[in-house]
Specification:
The protein is an alpha/beta fold. It has 3 domains: about 140 residues, no CATH class; about 140 residues, P-loop containing nucleotide triphosphate hydrolases (Rossmann fold); about 130 residues, P-loop containing nucleotide triphosphate hydrolases (Rossmann fold, 3-Layer(aba) Sandwich), CATH 3.40.50. β3 and β4 form a beta hairpin. It is built from 15 helices and 20 strands. The radius of gyration is 24 Å and the shape is globular. The strands form 4 sheets. Strands 3-4-2-1-5-6 form a 6-stranded mixed β-sheet, with helices on one face. The chain has a 6-stranded parallel β-sheet with strand order 9-8-10-11-7-12, covered by helices on one side. The two termini are about 30 Å apart. One of its GO terms (biological process) is recombinational repair. It comes from Haloactinopolyspora alba. Keywords: ATP-binding, Helicase, Hydrolase, Nucleotide-binding.
Length: about 475
Amino acid sequence: MADHPDHPDLATEQRHLDRVCRAVTEADADAPTPPDSSPLLFGRVEFAADTNQPDSAHTIYVGRRHVTDDDGTVLAHAWYEPTAAPFYERPSSVRRRVLVQHDRRLSAVHDEPTGEPTDGAAPEHVLGPAAHAQLERFRDGILHPATATLSRQQYDAVTRPAAGVLVVAGGPGTGKTQVGLHRAAWLAHTDPGTTVTIVVPTAALRTYTRAVLPALDADSVTSGTTRDAPAGHLIVDEAHDLDRAQLDELATTHRSVTLLVDPGRAAKPAAWSDVDLDLTHIQLTTSYRVPRPLRDTVAATLARTDDDVTPPVTVRSGLGGPLVQHDDADEVAGDALHAGTAAASTDFRVGVVVASSMLEPTLRLATDTERPVGDARDGDLTHPVTVLTPDDAAGLEFDAVALVSPDAIAAEHGARGLYTAVSRCTQTLAIFHSEPLPAGLDHLATPARPAPEPDADLHTLVDALGEDDRVIVEALVRRLLST
């Protein structure tokens, strides 16, 4: 599998990208340059010749929009056009290539496998180099389009016919929000005469997702409430708790409704899971956020909300299992802020998750100790460290999460709030507590290790580290050495 910047076809593919860029510029000289997060070209599909038609072999390119040359030659098919489907569906009869573009220059070319994996793994659980690189980049407080790396399941959900009620269900990190945003753009492009509204419940999540739709040329999509979209297409993110009356009203007043739900966060019984209703269901089974070492922790908190829900398969490596620190009650928040600031110094985006009753005291403590942090209620997630509650954390993700007093979170936000809090990180989770850990996290309780003497030698200090501590320290050292 070729996946390096020195791919032998890099220059050839760059020339094609140059043709696309010239055609776009000539067609609309006043059009703004697309941002790096929304490349004009990101894929190529080669079709083999049909047995009965030796001359039928051909190649298409896939990108942000439909682009033609002066003579009408198609230089790129828009991702939302049916002709682009093989790029996402990956049938074994085609060859698939992913093009990585930065500022109208190709930085890498990846030839990726199609068809079913030879090792028996599910296709959703096999990441190509482009998808892996996108996952491993640091968070920056803004969600970027995943148009080039949508999985088969996600693409299926995005492009399902717009009729009736579609329920897209999946655990944390399965891409529900990306599916919702791309479906909104797909509907806007394929049914341009109909209004499309997407409902995003919190200010933090609205701000976090604000860059995606413009990058998909879907400025006509509106963000609002369920009452803002009569008769049009409606997409509702974080729709876990809709009751039967609300669901019936939406279904009868909109041309199509798409609900994005996490079964582990839904009130029981969930109206959208009623088998007697005429609903279409798609289950997303792969988590691209939760790292493997944290899967058991997330699964344990999920089991406290619903024993019947199967957690998604995780594909991210992460930096090791959760770190647990027992503190005196008056030191818990301060130590979490200190750890968050330290992690942020290595370019991590950190979420410090607290119970609602601790939000204001933690923000005041950050101010008093001169630790600059963001308040998620403002909707600005670009700060290196953001303090937020489980309610505001819904739909968001951070490189690292510092969980403060999980007993208070469980008491105030319930098992679902605790499940939400522990499933926000892409790399590592640290837990700071003074009271016994609540159900779902109690398996992490370990006897406190004696602290080494302040003047202990390096060998003694290394021996005092737990295995998870070593993983974190090694990762931080590598990061510091690379800067």
